[in-house]
C-alpha cells in the first residue's frame, strides 16, 4: 500500500501518456436579469443551458433571478446572458437576517426582493469614534461620569 502506490503514482505522473485534467469545482451562480415575459425567460434558459458544464438552470421571473448549477464559470454565464440582449449582473443581494445593519444607506435597496438587502460593506461602529466617547462620558453606567449632572 505504501511503496507500490508511491511508485505507481510517480510513474503515472512523470511518464504517463495521459495528462490529468483538473476539474472545475461544482458551483452555483446567481444572476440578476430583468425579464418581462415567458419568451424572455425561455430565451435566457436556453442560452444558459447550452454552456458546457451547466447541470441545471432555474429561472425565477418574479425575483428577476437566474440560478445556474454546474461546472461553468460565473463570467461565462454572465456573458452568455448578456448575449441575449438583456442587462445582467451577478446577484447583489443577501438574505435580510445575514446582515448586522440592514438599513445602512449602502445596504438598503428598494428594488431588492422581499427578505433581501444589498450585499455591501456594513457600517460597524468604530471604538474610537468621537460620538461614542461623548455619549459614554455622560452615561449612567460610567462611574467616572461628570458629577455636575
From TrEMBL:
Domain HMA: 26-89
UniProt keyword list: Metal-binding
Domain of life the protein comes from: Eukaryota
Transmembrane domains' residue ranges: none
Protein name: HMA domain-containing protein
Organism: Citrullus colocynthis
Taxonomic lineage: Eukaryota, Viridiplantae, Streptophyta, Embryophyta, Tracheophyta
Amino acid at each position: 500500500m505504501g511503496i507500490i502506490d508511491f511508485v505507481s503514482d510517480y510513474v503515472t505522473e512523470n511518464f504517463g501518456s495521459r495528462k490529468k485534467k483538473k476539474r472545475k469545482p461544482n458551483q452555483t451562480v446567481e444572476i440578476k436579469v430583468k425579464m418581462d415575459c415567458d419568451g424572455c425567460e425561455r430565451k435566457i434558459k436556453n442560452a444558459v443551458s447550452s454552456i458546457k458544464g451547466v447541470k441545471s438552470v432555474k429561472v425565477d421571473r418574479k425575483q428577476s433571478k437566474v440560478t445556474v448549477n454546474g461546472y461553468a464559470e460565473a463570467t461565462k454565464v454572465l456573458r452568455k446572458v448578456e448575449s441575449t440582449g438583456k442587462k445582467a449582473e451577478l446577484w447583489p443581494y443577501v438574505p435580510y437576517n445575514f446582515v448586522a445593519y440592514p438599513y445602512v444607506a449602502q445596504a438598503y435597496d428598494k428594488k431588492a426582493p422581499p427578505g433581501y438587502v444589498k450585499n455591501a460593506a456594513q457600517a460597524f461602529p468604530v471604538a474610537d469614534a468621537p460620538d461614542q466617547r461623548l455619549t459614554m462620558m455622560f452615561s449612567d453606567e460610567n462611574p467616572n461620569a461628570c458629577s455636575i449632572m
